[in-house]
Design brief:
Elements (H helix, E strand, L loop, with lengths): L1 E2 L5 E2 L4 E6 L15 E7 L8 H10 L9 E6 L5 H20 L7
Antiparallel strand pairs: 1-2, 3-4, 4-5
């Protein structure tokens, strides 16, 4: 389980990872090693998200969500799969934390 907030945890089974080749500098291994990760999270059908958080997440990350409600995060900043995977999960957690914050009521 990935703890997002005290009340929200994401089951790792809900995440789909695909390792792909990263473009850019990488020395001898740049075209041989699939170090970038594409993380997919089915926001629309996730059992881990409360409905109000799901709606805010879809709005917040609208440019990264497919028509089917799949959130896609590409991570290719680092040269290793492990660090890129951690980066992608950290970015997902941060997005969900932002979506979990209730908007302040207008005065």
């Amino acid at each position: 389980m990935i703890q997002v907030t005290p009340t929200i945890a994401i089951n790792e089974n809900e995440l789909v990872e695909e390792f792909i080749r990263a473009s850019g500098p990488g020395g001898q291994n740049v075209n041989k090693v699939s170090s970038a990760v594409q993380l997919r999270f089915d926001v629309a059908n996730s059992r881990s998200l409360p409905e109000e958080v799901r709606r805010r997440l879809i709005t917040l990350a609208s440019n990264r969500i497919t028509e089917d409600g799949i959130l896609i995060i590409d991570a290719r900043q680092f040269r290793t799969q492990g660090r890129n995977r951690e980066n992608a999960i950290d970015r997902l957690v941060e997005l969900i934390r932002k979506a979990a914050q209730r908007p302040k009521a207008a005065p």
